[in-house]
Amino acid sequence: MSFSSLGLSKSLLSVLTTQKLMNPFPIQKEAIPAILKGRDILGIAKTGSGKTASYTLPILNQLQNDSANKNRHVNVLVLVPTRELAVQVKDVFQQFGSSLPERIKTLAVYGGVSINPQMQALNNVNVLVSTPGRLLDLVESNAVHLSEIKTLVLDEADKILGMGFKDEIDRIFKLLPKKRQNLLFSATLSDDVKSINQLILEDPILIKIEAEEDSIELIKQTGYWVSEGNKGPLLRYLIKKNDLQQVLVFAASTYKADNIADKLRKNGIDASAIHSKKSQTARLESLAKFKAGTLRVLVATDLLARGIDIEFLPHVINYELPRSPKDYIHRIGRTGRAESPGSAISLITPEDKHHFKIIQKKMKKWVDMIDSEHLDLKSF
Fold first, then answer.
1. Residues contacting 358, CB < 8 A, separation 6+
2. Last residue of a domain, one of 149, 181, 208
3. How far apart are CA 144 and CA 115, in angstroms?
4. 132 with 160: CB under 8 angstroms?
5. Quick one: 262 and 182 in the same domain?
6. CA distance 282 to 135
């Protein structure tokens, strides 16, 4: 099946062809025709399954026919849990919409930065991508009005509700017109998501894309036995010896992420840390460089890594193990996506041995282990 069979306009199909996107992912095959018909959607699919394009494409298709709106009365509202995801979703709208004959303006707004430039930029916006708290700030300032919303999207609804935004979401729902299309996407069908689904969705089409059990098969996993003191030299050895580019390194804390990035830079490896204590500007700048391939190593904590969605990320390194096997699979799943192979490396100390054994049992896969004791790490 190709995109041409899903009901999209010739203009959008031309954009997809230009970008060499021919075959839709499973969630796109099901969601795009249903959204074009005006149906409400409950989409359950993991991160990296192509869900963002599954709603951006049909929304852009609809806006080509009806993009007119009153100033500061947006047509489409996309609610997301994090600043990073807001920017990412906005980029996808602009990626597909920039070459369309009808100009469609998309804006991402979020907290942690000055509200004034966002208020000024809201003129003639068609698609607003926002975190819940900042949206309410803008509404209270009369910078934006929600009475003309035709399509509401909740992206990563489980994370929105899990991060404590339920009160904000309830307040936002009261500001929306009753007649609208609702699209709810989530990685999991939690109790909170079920309750929101029952509250806002009308006769929804359920699209559930099961995560394939062998989805980590494309990932080449390797573990290195190493002492705590040799972790830094081993990390630098692996990056330099194997000439690794675009490497995502996971650390357990903001302090450790900064420390790892500092040591890498001191040893001639271009690296930056991304975590909650960094300014929003610094985070977005590092993320943009990493996605563009101009930053060699990005060191991230688990929370901030959720905003990193790169289709062909080649390397993930666990400098420190996460607490749960589920988080481990989520980490290494940042690579080996879109049918493209990737590598995942874990640095395992004697103290990690038992925990790593549990992780391997849970994912039903044993990782090839290498003893780093025989590697010459002195010059690293």
1. 325
2. 208
3. 12
4. yes
5. no
6. 22
Terminus-to-terminus CA distance in the chain, angstroms? 50
Alpha carbon 371 to its chain centroid, in Å, reads 34
In this prediction the pTM is: 0.69
Residue 278 sits in the same domain as residue 140: no
Q: Rounded distance, CA 226 to CA 127, Å?
A: 49
Amino acid in position 376:
D
Task: Give residue 258's domain range.
Answer: 219-374
Measured in whole angstroms, how far is the alpha carbon of residue 253 from the centre of its chain? 20
Instruction: Look up residue 328 and give its two tokens.
Output: 């481990």
**Whether residue 87 sits in one domain with residue 106:** yes
Q: Do 312 and 204 have their domain in common?
A: no
DSSP for 122-134 reads TTT-SEEEE-HHH
**pLDDT tens, per residue, the chain with 380 residues:** 789 899 999 999 998 888 888 889 889 999 999 999 999 999 888 766 788 999 999 999 999 877 667 788 999 999 999 888 899 899 999 999 888 888 899 999 999 889 999 999 999 999 999 999 999 999 999 999 999 999 999 998 888 887 778 889 889 999 999 999 999 998 777 776 777 767 678 888 999 886 554 457 778 999 999 999 999 999 999 999 999 999 999 998 889 999 999 999 999 999 999 887 887 778 878 888 888 889 999 999 876 655 566 667 889 999 999 988 888 887 887 776 655 678 999 999 999 999 999 999 988 889 999 999 989 998 88
